[in-house]
From TrEMBL, chains A, B:
NADP(+) binds at L9, G10, L11, G12, T13, V14, G15, G16. It catalyses: L-homoserine + NAD(+) = L-aspartate 4-semialdehyde + NADH + H(+). It comes from Plasticicumulans acidivorans. This is Homoserine dehydrogenase. Residues 354-430 form the ACT domain.
């Protein structure tokens, strides 16, 4: 059979990696796919600065030329960002072309519109590379766990954030210090907001939750909290108590609705996912039949991302001639079978908590605090009291609570902060046991 | 669309679990598959002793009735063992039915024959449940990593063995003692040979290696060593040196051929896979583009296995109407593109080693031993010498070596065992760093 001709938008890190892997492993890939895959047309904003080997490709600086090329059967969108990516993808779809994209921001924000257009035109939009880099987590959730009611998932889905938290723990360093190093190493962008404020993770969580629960993409409903306020003291105290702090995306289905939240989280150090360090990613998924499963690998980088992009191309090639109705639905569930379960406001989520407070070092203070928790019906799991340093009148008190609604915790914290014997704000970090039940 | 009718062979643990999950999650599954799945006909050796809810199924004690039922589109083989499973599967294929099986022994030993028959009749044989229970590892390797040249994989693929080794380490217990407990708990069979001698793991490794490297199934060429000779002392010494002992299936592609081996293995304790404990399974796969990825979950049990069986049914349902040539090939690679790379004999494999020897407690002994290694070109990584206990004239010496051919190590060990100052045989456990390169 003739090779399938694909058009590549973007020849940066991932685009170059995709071109390189397709070339290097051409034999291996066509032995699997039963058909060659050839980049026939590629677009880059600035062709002169591109480092990929572009032998045999038609080249342009106008991405619309690729999207409108009648020879191209599959468009690979590796530009990133909302626009012009959205317009290009919609144009490709309108032209009857299948699309493979690594663009999580685009799918999280415009996926509902894009998938509707794709259905109308009978084409596929594949996005394995949008979450977890080279880890085939989209495929695992959409296909591998198809027998399950997914109960919850929790993922380390931003490598930059995980690198920073790992360094803070291993070396007792401060956030700002490690961030500067991550920027120097190229792990963090010059503007690190998307990574350290959790927006990138929220994009990915939006996608994971939709395919896990069969709900529309609802990026604007994700509760998102970054890691910028995590101190090395919190990391150390968590360690003393047998926990590690990870920046998690958590999605959970409850009777009332769906929890969608990205925030720093204490996890028991004996959990496998607590030991996922550096820039690596992992997603833990709990299905009712399969129990807990975990998927681990490189969450970013040229070739890991290329691995996912090319797997998607092979998948699309296999189903080029199939009836659209028999294909794996974009959001795992048939489009007319999506659930309208509401996404819960953060006040309605239920989780355990790590709290740190500065308390006057005199008798009775702890009794006042624990009385407030008792009144609110919040059970305490552990208390750790640190003697005040020489220059401070206040002791540090760490409290771990059992699971409680965020709303109740907010009320309790407000009462505690109003105590004369407590200085400043209470630091609160959510805690998840991620046990299998 | 009408529900797809499937026939179920075997209503034991996995068969019952499959029936239960299909019923409980019928809504969830058909929301994904776009079509209902209905067990219309089921066979069990003894229907009276079956605990599954069989409402609405035609029942028989003759499995061939199911295989020959014209209404059945997909046959689910959950009987296990070689026969009559092989004959039933071949008959189902001859009747033009697709097959889903959890039978690793059958696929490892008779897969080449079965897949050839399936191709001739244009049907699929799916076997996700044959390896790693509910972990979608077959899908990850065949499809998710399709862009990669797989360099090696290493898996904890027998839950019983991993439970025993975990208990030995956590509680300092002996092998025989833990095995008896595992049998009482139902984690180990009355005849535990398949688990503790590595045969079950070898079946699974055979399958993983074929789909990773595109080679025919070659079960009889797997080097297989069980865990029965692991002592609690070895587990403790390994721990002192920063390693854990796991029973691994290892497959590696070298320039000369394929290494296929199942044996106890020391792994650095900081590796994620070293922390996979109890009955859980995990497979670590190194691809040239994606780097290391890991897949973790329950490797056995009624519902985890059912999860994989049903995922396969959904996959088969999706491709019922597709051209056979476009389907994912049984062994990941197109049947005419399999590799004839030879499987290497164990003497040709390359690995690091943990050695334990009993040496006379006098000067010069260690010099003799290290001289033998130096002569053989074997580099030593670490030596740990234990003072002899009061009742013994011999000290215990632990040596970790760097990577070397097994053939060279055999020769060195023979020379060491011939020394007057060494008592008894040298204990040898292989050691793998499982680093990402």
């Amino acid at each position: 059979m003739n090779p399938v001709k694909v058009g590549l938008l973007g020849l940066g890190t991932v685009g170059g990696g995709t071109a390189n892997v397709l070339r290097r492993n051409a034999g291996e890939i066509s032995r699997r796919a039963g058909r060659g895959i050839e980049i026939s047309h590629a677009a880059a904003r600035n062709l002169d600065s591109t480092k990929a080997d572009m032998t045999g490709m038609k080249l342009t600086e106008d991405a619309f030329e690729v999207v409108n090329d009648p020879e191209v059967a599959i468009v690979i969108e590796l530009i990133g960002g909302y626009e012009p990516a959205r317009t290009l993808v919609l144009q490709a779809i309108a032209n009857g072309k299948h699309v493979v994209t690594a663009n999580k921001a685009l799918i999280a924000r415009h996926g509902n519109e894009i998938f509707t257009a794709a259905r109308e035109h009978g084409v596929m939009v594949a996005f394995e590379a949008a979450v977890g880099g080279g880890i085939p987590i989209i495929k695992a959730l959409r296909e591998g766990l198809a027998a399950n009611r997914i109960e919850w998932l929790a993922g380390i889905i931003n490598g930059t954030g995980n690198f920073i938290l790992t360094e803070m723990r291993d070396k007792g360093r401060d956030f700002a210090d490690v961030l500067a190093e991550a920027q120097a190493l190229g792990y963090a962008e010059a503007d690190p907001t998307f990574d350290v404020e959790g927006i990138d993770a929220a994009h990915k969580l939006t996608i994971l939750a939709s395919i896990a629960f069969g709900i529309p993409l609802q990026f604007d409903k994700v509760y998102t909290e970054g890691i910028t306020r995590i101190t090395r003291e919190d990391v150390a105290y968590a360690g003393e108590l047998g926990y590690r702090i990870k920046h998690l995306g958590v999605a959970r289905a409850t009777d009332e609705g769906i929890e969608l939240r990205v925030h720093p989280t204490l996890i028991p150090e004996r959990r496998l996912i607590a030991n996922v360090d550096g820039v690596m990613n992992a997603v833990l998924v709990k299905g009712d039949a399969v129990g807990p499963t975990l998927y681990y690998g490189a969450g970013a980088g040229a070739e890991p991302t290329a691995s996912a992009v090319i797997a998607d191309i092979v998948d699309v090639v296999r189903t080029l001639s199939s009836e659209p109705a028999t294909r794996v639905p974009h959001l795992a569930f048939q489009p007319d079978a999506l659930s309208d379960k509401p996404v819960l406001p953060v006040e309605a989520i239920e989780t355990a908590y790590y709290l740190r407070l500065q308390a006057a070092d005199k008798p009775g203070v702890l009794a006042e605090v624990t009385r407030i928790f008792a009144d609110a019906g919040i059970s305490i799991e552990a208390i750790l009291q640190k003697e005040p340093p020489a220059d401070s009148p206040d002791a540090t008190v760490i409290i771990l609570t059992q699971r409680v609604r965020e709303r109740q915790m907010n009320a309790a914290i407000a009462r505690i902060e109003a105590l004369d014997t407590i200085s400043g704000a209470v630091t609160r970090i959510r805690l998840e046991h991620l046990a299998s039940n």
